[in-house]
Amino acid sequence: MLRTIKEIVDYPQAYPQCKPDVLAEVSYSRLKSGSISIKGKKVPAASLSSYARAVEIAAILKERIQNGKFLLSEPVAPLPGVGSDYDFKPLKERPILH
């Protein structure tokens, strides 16, 4: 089984100030256990998404695709490109931490 490592981030502190602060890295199974250790302190933990709900939604989507009830359409409109008059906002890049 693939072991997935999740980064633990303090969202209220890190994201508003664009800080790429990773407090810890833990396995998904440890995160789902309900508590993790950060800087020697045991803290409650939970994932931001529900694996069970994701599996349920994937099964519904699979069934709809197989039954021909979920179809992709042609693009409604092209995305704006370099020659368009659309004014793009610059994206502030943050470094990737490993």
Give the spatial strand order of the biggest sheet: 1-2
For the termini, the CA-CA separation is 22 Å
- Rounded to an integer in angstroms, the radius of gyration calculated over CA atoms is 20 Å
Secondary-structure element series: EHEHEEH
| Beta-strand share of residues | 15-25%
Largest β-sheet summary: 2 strands, antiparallel
Estimate the global geometry from the Cα principal axes.
flat
- Segments where pLDDT lies below 50 for 5+ residues? none
Number of helices: 3
Q: What structural class should be given to the helix and strand makeup?
A: alpha+beta
How helix-rich are the residues, as a percent range? 25-40%
Number of strands: 4
| Mean residue pLDDT | 82
Helix and strand arrangement:
Blueprint (H helix, E strand, L loop, with lengths): L4 E5 L1 H4 L7 E6 H5 L2 E4 L2 E4 L6 H16 L32
Antiparallel strand pairs: 1-2, 3-4
Q: What structural keywords apply?
A:
98 residues, alpha+beta, two-stranded antiparallel ribbon, 3 helices, 4 strands, 26% helix, flat
Summarize the structure in short.
With 98 residues, this protein is an alpha+beta fold.
Protein described:
By secondary structure, the protein is an alpha+beta fold. The chain has a domain at 5-66. Helices cover 26% and strands 19% of the residues. It has 3 helices and 4 strands. The strands form 2 sheets. It has a two-stranded antiparallel ribbon. It has a two-stranded antiparallel ribbon with strand order 3-4. The protein is flat, with a radius of gyration of 20 Å. The two termini are 22 Å apart.
